[in-house]
From TrEMBL:
Top-level taxon of the source organism: Eukaryota
Keyword Signal belongs to the record: yes
InterPro entries, per database record: GH, Glyco_hydro_17, Glyco_hydro_17_plant
Keyword Oxidoreductase annotated: no
Xref: PANTHER family: GLUCAN ENDO-1,3-BETA-GLUCOSIDASE BG1-RELATED-RELATED
GO biological process: carbohydrate metabolic process
Pfam families for this protein: Glyco_hydro_17 (PF00332)
Single GO MF annotation: hydrolase activity, hydrolyzing O-glycosyl compounds
Signal peptide positions on this chain: 1-22
Swiss-Prot/TrEMBL keywords: Glycosidase, Hydrolase, Signal
Family: Belongs to the glycosyl hydrolase 17 family.
Protein name: Glucan endo-1,3-beta-D-glucosidase
Lineage: Eukaryota, Viridiplantae, Streptophyta, Embryophyta, Tracheophyta
Organism: Lactuca virosa
Length: 363
């Protein structure tokens, strides 16, 4: 009888664990940028997502060919509003038209979020768009709600570590003084509407020449100790600094979705093919597990890798053109297994989606 009770207890415990993991696990998404002249067609790109069981995508504008290719797939989508379109959406009528043309007309596309602007910052070259972000967010939210899609599609904006004035230690995270006026009402809007903040997180740019093991999830132990919270990777430290900064402005319950994270394979400091592959592999293992961060433990982290392809026409440093996990011809640059789960003993098990050089129509 004792053995049977023990076996029953173990089975119940295992079932509870499986249900908990299934409910919390987040598949990894991949950003689909198209700043190149040698990239596959949108249909072939979507086929590549499907073949590799990549079930979440971020795009940066409402590209009709991409939306058409996504029809009827199970791929969840972050659709972007480019910065240069923000001003026009400060009018409700324009926002209504945008939602009708780019969302309602594609009823069989699984829209998840609308990213209203990308890395708009009072201190960078995008400062001209600061006053348009929140009005555009409000108007798009109104239009989505009026269309009966408010519970399905959340409106947000994509920010980045450049808005932080303090990031160390993470619990002291705070926005730049001159960014507070811009970001605080956005945070309050997100809190009121139960929407997440989208944040682009790049340990490569924050500390590429510093502690490389810390940036690559390879530190053997604690690197930063912060009021009882121990950090062994830079990704978690940046993410928790954003959480702390939000909390101080009324956003303690606003979830963060990591809307970009990646590492270049060429063209910059601290780069090699091997370091990029290491970063992507360890990032996937970390965010799809249920470890969470020291400030937000016990859950996976919704994350989008940047990017699907190397984009040969991206402006800026040479490294900007080498973030792809695929080459433009569709060949995988790395052997990456998507959607991993860490078990209770810390081991990693593969769920599905081994990246491999499958041939698809068009390649």
């Amino acid at each position: 009888m004792a053995k049977m009770l023990l076996l029953l207890w173990l089975l119940v415990d295992l079932l509870v664990f499986i249900i908990t993991v299934a409910q919390d696990a987040q598949p990894v998404g991949v950003c689909y940028g198209r700043v190149g002249d040698d990239l596959p067609s949108q249909q072939d790109a979507v086929n590549l997502y499907k073949i590799n069981n990549i079930t979440r995508m971020r795009i940066y504008d409402p590209d009709r060919a991409t939306l058409q290719a996504l029809k009827g797939t199970n791929i969840e989508l972050i659709i972007g509003v480019p910065n240069d379109a923000l001003q026009s959406l400060s009018q409700q009528s324009a926002a209504n038209t945008w939602v009708r043309n780019n969302i309602q007309n594609y009823s069989d596309v699984r829209f998840r979020y609308v990213a209203v602007g990308n890395e708009v910052d009072p201190n960078n070259a995008n400062s001209q768009y600061v006053s348009y972000v929140l009005p555009a967010m409000r108007n798009l939210h109104n239009a989505i709600t009026a269309a009966g899609l408010g519970n399905q599609i959340k409106v947000s904006t994509a920010t980045y570590a450049g808005l932080l004035g303090v990031s160390y230690p993470p619990s002291n995270g705070a926005f730049n003084d001159n960014a507070r006026e811009f970001i605080e009402p956005i945070i309050r809007f997100l809190a009121e509407n139960n929407s997440p903040m989208l944040v682009n997180i790049y340990p490569y740019f924050v500390d590429a020449n510093g502690n490389l093991l810390y940036a690559l999830f390879l530190s053997p132990g604690t690197v930063v100790s912060d009021n009882g919270r121990n950090y062994s990777n830079l990704f978690d430290a940046i993410l928790d600094a954003h959480y702390a900064a939000q909390a101080s402005l009324g956003g303690e319950n606003v979830e963060i979705v990591v809307s970009e994270s990646g590492w270049p394979s060429a063209g910059g400091d601290a780069w090699t093919f091997q370091t990029a592959e290491t970063y992507y592999k360890n990032l996937i293992a970390h965010v799809t597990g249920i470890t969470g961060t020291p400030a937000k433990p016990g859950r996976s982290i919704e994350t989008y890798l940047y990017s699907m392809f190397d984009e040969g026409m991206k402006p800026g440093a040479e490294s900007e053109r080498h973030f792809g996990i695929f080459s433009p011809d569709g060949r995988p640059k790395y052997q990456l297994s998507f959607n991993l789960i860490k078990s209770r003993n810390g081991k990693i098990s593969e769920r599905y989606g081994l990246l491999s050089a499958f041939s698809i129509q068009g390649f």
